[in-house]
Amino acid sequence: MRSILTAAAALMALPMMTAPALAGDPEAGEANFRQCASCHGIVDPDGNVTQRLAPTGPNLWGVIGRQAGSYEGYERFSPSMVEAGEQGLVWDEENLVAYLDNQTAFLREFLGDNRARSTMNHRLRGSAEDIHAYLATFGAE
Fold it and tell me: pTM of the prediction?
């Protein structure tokens, strides 16, 4: 019995493993996502629609943790976006927030190519951190 109590106490002393806290607010991101919805949708793999798909941009379900420029079935990525993905760009909080701040400047810096361009040219109004936090609720990072 004593060994069980000792083991239990040792387990309780270990730090709890938790997911890292997000800088943004998912609820604020949901409200802020309206400006993204004219080009992007959110539809899960089973076809459940959170935001109807628009014909302009790729589905953002599971975008957090996804390789940039790699959404299957979407062929309108800029060559620079595809190249960035091939060079290891993955959408995490840091990259997405920086990208949303200035898409073309982000790609130019990431690729080291002053001619790199993004097909997305929307200047986000509001918090990119909130948009990231909202998108992180759709699929695993």
Answer: 0.80
